[in-house]
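Project outcomes to date are best conveyed with an example. Our students and postdoctoral researchers have been running inverse folding experiments weekly, and each run begins with a structure described purely in tokens. The record below, which covers 463 residues, was selected by the lab manager from last quarter's runs and is presented without edits.
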């Protein structure tokens, strides 16, 4: 238990640097619900900051030492540099400062039943699936998820129970601040190599994360993933396993069929038929996510009928194979995929949905990831007919000349010969105008602002 800060209501004010971020804003809502006053700063006004202001938060549209007065705690996200004037002022005044993930860990500690979903891919979708099942089961959970889920009207839901569910991100070992009562590990792959040395370093962090699970507690592991299976061998406590291709796992499935890219399948628990499930979200990867959800929710004691109904009514989260609209018979979708494994899984689903050709507009995310995984990225776009590669989205990084998007386009062309590099979003829209035809599917892909291309294309005047 973290004793640096108490969530007990009282005359407490917390200042949040970068309050407009999707995770920070959700944490602000949870704190406000507990009677804690919130101030914050963000350089960008948005629907999120306006919503927080309407709830009573004081939000400054700039970072300045003058924003720090007599707050009891200052919270910052990993993207905020240590020389930020508000952090500097807080230190000079002796006000405690805390990283966002640590605050999430403190919040998690205040719930008797806390579920944390970890893994390189699938966290948002699986966390959302579990949340929807919990709602169906009447558990009234507090939910903190890294995407927008229509079932909870955003990325955060304030419940009035002892149940809490959240994503657990491994970047910079953020999830080591958490002590969940149930932890899910979906997969472990090479990513965030600007922080981790290699795959062994990443797996070691996941091992430490699982050592923080409360006792008694529950661990759910994907046996299809080689690194997660390897991790299971070092565990000294019981765990629950699942897998599509691992018959020895506790939870498996058979008879997988697809209609409009959405799967139906029979679920088996310890080799006995458990039920048939029909998903409303596309792709084989979502069958795996659904098995993780079933394994977790069954362990939590949620009735079978609620698990099935919650899963079957789950329509997905925004930016996960999200339908954006249709123009001239051309369907436009958007997806957050920014890692080679995610790209391939998303393109498999998109390929099944496309009656004509498949255009993928890809925005690489961070220079480090693009450089370290260049060969894997270069082999990831075989299922697309045409890949438009645009400039790398820097996010938290600076361009040091390490890598350029043209290098990725060249790498794709050496493997599958289907890439073109276009820098400007307006030029990408023109390229799509010139080349896409009725029946084709255009999918924008990446963790940055590439979704704007789909919006621009749908809003453009038809040629």
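After processing, the design step wrote out the following sequence:
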């Amino acid at each position: 238990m973290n004793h640096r800060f108490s969530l007990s209501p009282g005359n407490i004010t917390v200042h949040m640097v970068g309050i407009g971020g999707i995770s920070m804003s959700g944490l602000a809502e949870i704190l406000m619900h507990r009677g804690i006053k919130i101030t914050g700063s963000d350089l960008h006004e948005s629907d999120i900051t306006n919503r927080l202001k309407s709830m009573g938060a004081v939000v400054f549209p700039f970072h300045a030492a003058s924003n720090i007065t007599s707050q009891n705690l200052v919270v910052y996200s990993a993207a905020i540099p240590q020389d930020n004037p508000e952090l500097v002022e807080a230190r000079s005044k002796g006000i405690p400062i805390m990283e966002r993930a640590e605050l999430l860990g403190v919040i998690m500690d205040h719930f008797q039943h806390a579920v944390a979903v970890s893994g390189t891919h699938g966290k948002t979708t699986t966390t959302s699936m579990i949340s929807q099942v919990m709602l169906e089961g009447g558990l009234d959970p507090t939910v903190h998820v890294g995407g927008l889920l229509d079932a909870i009207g955003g990325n955060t839901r304030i419940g009035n129970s002892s149940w809490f569910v959240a994503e657990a991100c491994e970047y910079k070992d953020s999830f080591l601040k958490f002590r969940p009562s149930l932890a899910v590990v979906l997969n472990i792959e090479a990513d965030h190599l600007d922080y981790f040395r290699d795959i062994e370093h990443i797996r070691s962090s996941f091992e430490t994360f699982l050592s923080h699970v409360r006792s008694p507690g529950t661990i759910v592991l994907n046996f299809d993933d080689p690194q997660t299976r390897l991790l299971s061998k070092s565990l000294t406590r019981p765990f629950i396993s699942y897998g599509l291709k691992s018959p020895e796992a506790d939870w498996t499935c058979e008879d997988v069929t697809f209609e409009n890219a959405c799967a139906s399948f029979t679920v088996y628990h310890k080799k006995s038929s458990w039920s048939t499930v029909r998903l409303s979200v596309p792709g084989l990867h979502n069958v795996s996510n659904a098995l993780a959800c079933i394994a977790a929710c069954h362990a939590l004691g949620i009735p079978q009928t609620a698990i099935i109904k919650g899963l079957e009514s789950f329509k997905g989260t925004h930016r996960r194979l999200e339908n954006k609209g249709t123009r001239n018979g051309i369907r436009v979708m958007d997806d957050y995929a920014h890692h080679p494994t995610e790209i391939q899984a998303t393109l498999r689903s998109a390929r099944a949905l496309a009656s004509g050709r498949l255009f993928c507009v890809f925005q690489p995310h961070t220079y480090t990831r693009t450089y370290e995984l260049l060969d894997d990225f270069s082999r990831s776009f075989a299922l697309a007919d045409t890949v438009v590669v645009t400039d790398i989205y820097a996010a938290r990084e600076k361009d040091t000349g390490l890598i350029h998007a043209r290098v990725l386009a060249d790498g794709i062309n050496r493997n599958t010969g289907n890439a073109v590099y276009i820098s400007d979003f307006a030029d990408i829209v023109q390229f799509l105008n010139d080349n896409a035809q009725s029946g084709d599917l255009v999918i924008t892909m990446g963790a940055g602002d590439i979704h704007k291309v789909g919006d621009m294309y749908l809003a453009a005047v038809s040629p």
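The first helix runs from residue 22 to 33. The chain has a mean pLDDT of 92. The training component of this project remains on track.
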